[in-house]
Specification:
Layout: H1 2-12, E1 28-31, E2 42-43, E3 57-59, H2 70-73, E4 91-97, E5 100-104, E6 112-113, E7 135-136, E8 142-146, E9 151-156, E10 161-166, E11 168-173, E12 179-184, E13 195-199, E14 204-209, E15 220-225, E16 231-240, E17 247-256, E18 262-271, E19 275-276, E20 280-282, E21 286-288, E22 296-297, E23 315-322, E24 328-336, E25 342-348, E26 354-358, E27 364-369, E28 376-380, E29 387-390, E30 394-400
Parallel strand pairs: 2-29, 3-10
Antiparallel strand pairs: 1-25, 4-5, 4-30, 5-6, 7-8, 8-9, 9-10, 11-12, 12-13, 13-14, 15-16, 16-17, 17-18, 18-19, 20-21, 20-22, 23-24, 24-25, 26-27, 27-28, 28-29
Length: 415
Amino acid sequence: MKQLFSLTLLLLLLLACTPVKTATPTPTITAVSSPAATKTPKSTTVPTTTPIPATPTVPLVPPTETAVSPSDFFNNEAVAPYQTEKLETGQTIWFERDDAIWRTNIDGLQPEQISSNQFLGRNTDEVDYRDTQPKLSPNGRFIVQLYDHETTKLLDIATNLEIILPAMWEFDWSPDSRYLAYVPVPINQESTHPIFVYDVFTNNSIRVVGQDRGRADRLFHRPVWSPDGKQLAFACCFVPSEPYDGSNVGELQQVEVASGSRETVGEVIATVAGGVAPICWHEGNIINSERENALRCDSNFTYSLFSDTSKNNMHAMWQTINNENGEWRGTQIIVTNATNEEVWTLDWEEATPLALAWSLDGRFLFFSDQSNESSIWRIDADSNNLIEFLPNAKLLGVVAQWQKPEATSNTSPDG
């Protein structure tokens, strides 16, 4: 069991190295048709903005057993209808600056701070949490940030409120963005490890899966909602493989949240190198670890604010550039088309990982490095017009902008 617990802690720790930027790089772009093509970055003028005041927070008592039955908890008719508006078409660039989340439009104008200061916890004493990335709800209204081993932060963009939730190990948004299924961070090696569901509309929580089948049931992994939001799939009950090959074999289970009905539907593998395999829902309520053609996968593989494939099926990736001694001396961006043919490359002088994201309309590729003095750069999809988009900013992604719903009109478009 100690070996199993070590595995679970290893899955929680997300370590990253942050190189220190020493000078502004001069990117070099190479087009397939013109290998010698070189672009010099041009700076843009960014309006000065005033950060918002500290966002008010609403503390939440850690969830306990509730007297409300699951059927009542998940009865949406018991409360006012929950707004599940779709994302608006307007696209915004989300970025990190001074430990807060900001956003701006596609041209870098009117940057706006949308979270409180220290929301991301980049300066926390807990090194393992410094590089966790915020996760956006499917409707684009809520942001979850794993802050430290005691705290998870939830930001409601509509009300500008931040709610303090218990520390989460893994979580998943329901398709309608109303419920957050999560596994709490274990207190110690002997602590139980249930699955809770938090209702952002009522600010209540309920335990939907707990320790009811013996010691092997203490640890749960990868909760993921079904496409209809009525069931949760998850992994549990891991034991060493026989013969042991360094992996552990667990049960793939599903539970109907309103009734608590639970069954085992397959197996799932966990390894030291790869962690617990992904859990995905497919047509016909089939659950497995195959991400291809999946309807939904757990949040470790979804809700990313980054899109490395554009609307026009242009794919962007980065790779290291090594010297003759095999040392990392720079980073290269490679853009390929739908048939995997190389279209152009960009050489970056910094030896650092890059964050890459296409605009939603496919016109631009945004990127930044991971240094403390990073800027966000923007380049056209055809490799022309490289500019320094925002100084002193780290790219968090490109998202459609959530807007408050307008009142329903009773008048037809033609009057």
